[in-house]
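WARN retry 2 of 3 for item q-0093 after timeout on previous attempt; input resubmitted unchanged.
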Amino acid sequence: CGTTVEENYCYDNNDDTFFAYSSPDGEEVTLFFLSGLIESCCDDIFVYDGLNSDAPLLYSGNNGGDLTDLTVVATSGNLYMEFDMDGSVSCQSSTTYAGGWTFLVGCGEIEIPGCTDPDALNFNPGATQDNGSCQLPVELVCNETVFENYCYGNNELTYFGYTSPEAEPVTIFFQDGLLSTFQDSLIIYDG
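OK item q-0093 returned
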């Protein structure tokens, strides 16, 4: 086992694909999703602690439509994953879910890449290997203006953070720009 496998998969409507993994020495098998969107109303994945769907069910669902950071551990040394997809929307039929899933499978504790800096905006507490993706907040200087120009892409999750010295208020002003009204959002937090 020893080597972690990275899988990339773009599911289709009514997809009946399955994945099965087995550890040669019976060591637990870990499944970790690096990224991936799934239709939250109508598509689900099922992960079992064995080599088929007769084994004990470990996970059933869609993680609210975003599989990112979903982790499942099969202690039997075997892991089986299958899908229940409807016929309306999928990775292959929709730009919303384009890009597919990227997941890691390995034996025992696997190295999970991500941001390991707890001060970063995109800190991942499950990450065990820093991949250089940390996005730290911009430290503002009082009475100075910071201009940002940004164009977002499909299936993108981006963070911007700003801190002011001595907890001075921070004002955000949008001079121009458009945001799709279908499943795109801008969220601003105070903190």
